[in-house]
């Protein structure tokens, strides 16, 4: 009899809490008991199976895989696209835009690198109604046929959508020598740009693989000794011109003395560092970026996410 009375009490509290939506304080007052007791009973209802919670996933969500990846990699968050878009960058861009819209708050400073996935991000972006936003380049520009993938265009277009203040670098991604780069950096304009980059609260970055085609700094712009150093030290990927090996250790090659990009230490201080990449050709680079903590949020496609999970056991 006592057990039946207790179970009835538990069921009633569960009904009030989960079905009606009463707060624990309201239930405590209604049933003349302490809030602490209500809390204990609610926990007990879950433990005994009086209450079971079912999360309904549809075919386009990958919540379980995302949670496993977060646990195995130590990333703060993983977003796995469920889209079957013909162009993987369409799906990555849409997922990254939705993530950024959810994340943004007043006075955020968002830094962008460059690449196709980020270009698609901007194409999928919607106004968010946040105040005092700033968007800035994290790397210089690159003369290329695909101008939409350049960081300056990404910043310009995202600023229009988000009604944010744009911060442009107005500089190439790489120059001939350190002296020229340092001379330009000594100008007040560039120091202001770098100050803005260093205050970023969010970084949205592509993850480049180390190949002749995929480098942010193409091989044709590298000196032979720089490229040799990267090969000898087994570079697998790059973020914001910072090349790294399979363990995410950044490689010193001399390139960073000639580039216009956020420095490594300042980049690593950005609270939210979102890596956006997918495809088997990016797998090694993505795993290295995760191991080196160059990113703490990953947005990728389903097939690549499963391969990343294998890499981390």
Can you describe this structure?
- The protein has 313 residues and is α/β, with parallel strands linked by helices.
- Helices cover 45% and strands 12% of the residues.
- It has helices at residues 2-20, 24-30, 35-48, 63-73, 88-103, 116-124, 151-162, 178-185, 188-198, 224-232, 264-268, 283-291, 302-311; strands at 77-81, 109-112, 134-137, 165-167, 202-206, 208-209, 237-239, 242-244, 272-276, 297-301.
- The strands form 2 sheets. A 7-stranded parallel sheet has the order 1-10-9-5-2-3-4, with helices on both faces. Strands 6-7-8 form a 3-stranded antiparallel sheet, covered by helices on one side.
- α4 (63-73) runs parallel beside α13 (302-311).
- It is elongated.
Mean pLDDT: 88
* CA(first)-CA(last) distance: 50 Å
| Order of adjacent strands in the largest pleated sheet | 1-10-9-5-2-3-4
The gross shape turns out to be elongated
Helix vs. strand class: alpha/beta
Task: Give a quick account of the main beta sheet: strands, pairing sense, barrel closure.
Answer: 7 strands, parallel
Q: State which percent range the strand residues make up.
A: 5-15%
Q: Roughly how many Å is the radius of gyration?
A: 24 Å
- Low-confidence parts: none
Task: Compile the SSE list and pairings.
Blueprint (H helix, E strand, L loop, with lengths): L1 H19 L3 H7 L4 H14 L14 H11 L3 E5 L6 H16 L5 E4 L3 H9 L9 E4 L13 H12 L2 E3 L10 H8 L2 H11 L3 E5 L1 E2 L14 H9 L4 E3 L2 E3 L19 H5 L3 E5 L6 H9 L5 E5 H10 L2
Parallel strand pairs: 1-10, 2-3, 2-5, 3-4, 5-9, 9-10
Antiparallel strand pairs: 6-7, 7-8
Helix pairs in contact: 1-3, 2-3, 4-13, 5-6
């Amino acid at each position: 009899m006592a057990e039946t009375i207790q179970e009835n009490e538990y069921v009633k509290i569960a009904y009030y809490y989960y079905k009606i939506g009463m707060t624990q304080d309201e239930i405590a007052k209604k049933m003349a008991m302490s809030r602490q007791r209500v809390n204990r009973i609610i926990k007990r209802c879950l433990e005994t199976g009086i209450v079971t919670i079912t999360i309904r996933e549809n075919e386009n969500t990958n919540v379980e895989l995302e949670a496993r990846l977060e646990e195995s990699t130590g990333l703060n968050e993983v977003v796995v696209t469920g889209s079957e878009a013909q162009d993987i960058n369409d799906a990555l861009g849409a997922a990254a835009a939705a993530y950024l819209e959810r994340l943004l708050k007043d006075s955020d400073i968002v830094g962008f690198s460059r690449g196709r996935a980020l270009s698609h991000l901007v194409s999928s972006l919607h106004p968010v109604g946040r105040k005092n936003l700033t968007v800035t380049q994290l790397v210089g520009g690159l003369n290329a046929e695909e101008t939409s993938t350049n960081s300056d265009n990404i910043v310009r277009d995202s600023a229009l959508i988000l009604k944010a203040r744009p911060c442009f670098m107005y500089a190439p991604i790489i120059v001939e020598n350190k002296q020229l780069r340092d001379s330009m950096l000594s100008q007040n304009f560039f120091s202001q740009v770098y100050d803005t980059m260093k205050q970023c609260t969010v970084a949205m970055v592509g993850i480049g693989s180390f190949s002749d085609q995929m480098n942010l700094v193409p091989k044709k712009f590298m000196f032979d000794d720089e490229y040799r150093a990267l090969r000898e030290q087994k570079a697998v990927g790059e973020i914001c011109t910072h090349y790294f090996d399979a363990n995410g250790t950044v490689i010193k090659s001399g390139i960073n003395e000639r580039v216009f990009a956020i420095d490594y230490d300042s980049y690593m201080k950005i609270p939210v560092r979102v890596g956006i990449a997918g495809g088997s050709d990016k797998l090694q680079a993505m795993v290295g970026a995760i191991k080196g903590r160059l990113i703490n949020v990953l947005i990728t496609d389903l097939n690549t996410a499963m391969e990343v999970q294998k890499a981390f056991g």
